[in-house]
Specification:
It is a single chain. The protein is α+β, with helices and mostly antiparallel strands and 158 residues long. The chain has a domain at 2-110: 3-Layer(aba) Sandwich (Aminopeptidase). The chain has helices at 11-25, 32-39, 44-52, 93-107, 122-127, and strands spanning 2-5, 57-63, 66-73, 78-84, 112-118, 131-140, 143-153. Strands 1-2-3-4-5-7-6 form a 7-stranded mixed β-sheet. α1 packs antiparallel against α2 and α1 (11-25) crosses α3 (44-52). The chain is globular, with a radius of gyration of 15 Å. The structure holds coenzyme A. Coenzyme A binds at residues 21-22, 25-26, 69, 82-84, 89-95, 117-118, 120-121, 123-124, 127. Coenzyme A binds next to α1, β4, α4, β5 and α5.
Length: 158
């Protein structure tokens, strides 16, 4: 597996992976109406803007030159997106991306990471030491979706 920062030409594959991951990996955790609202329609332009955003680190993981997962991370410690291709699920791709986020956080001297984890992702974040602060229902295209506000306190280096 190879991790690198995303570039604009990744946007199409990222859009498709986002769509596929939700539909394949979260279908057991949300209703079909919720899955459709969350997955939306793949739109490369939206992802091109996120990748270009200088206020976030957007990482991709590749396996044999294919996109296996991605995450994006804001410099205040917010883990915004974390998605893995159904073809590469449960093989440590999200774990590798989270390790990268921890490295970035350490180099920025952050003392805290936080996220809004889906029902699907909650066990992954718990395994990596995140604690649930509260559950919440967020409105996604008019449909309520349950997620968990989670955080992890980091030990300052040195
Ligand atoms: C959640 C997600 C990112 C996990 O990616 P992944 O690469 O499969 O995760 P990993 O292989 O690194 O998993 C590491 C550990 O986390 C836990 N874990 C991961 N996915 C899990 C799941 N669906 N159910 C229960 N535990 C899970 C397990 O302990 C796993 O270890 P194991 O496989 O040895 O049991 C992926 O399922 C996904 O993209 N889901 C759909 C979209 C989503 O919910 N994204 C998060 C938005 S906040």
């Amino acid at each position: 597996m190879h991790l690198r920062l995303a570039v604009a030409t990744d946007a199409g594959a990222v859009a498709q992976l986002f769509h596929d991951a939700i539909r394949a990996l979260s279908a057991g955790d949300y209703s079909s109406e919720q899955i459709e609202a969350w997955a939306g329609v793949p739109e490369a332009a939206r992802w091109r803007d996120r990748i270009a955003d200088q206020n976030r680190e957007f990482w991709v993981a590749e396996v044999d030159d294919a996109l296996a997962g991605f995450c994006d991370f804001e410099p205040d410690g917010h883990v915004d997106m974390l998605y893995v291709s159904p073809d590469h699920a449960r093989r440590g791709v999200a774990t590798a991306l989270l390790h990268q986020i921890h490295e970035s956080a350490a180099s920025l001297g952050l003392t805290r990471l936080y996220t809004e984890a889906s029902i699907t992702a909650r066990p992954l974040f718990e395994k990596h030491g995140f604690l649930v602060l509260e559950s919440q229902d967020v409105n996604v295209r008019g449909t309520p979706l349950r997620n968990y506000r989670m955080e992890k306190k980091l030990q300052p280096e040195g």
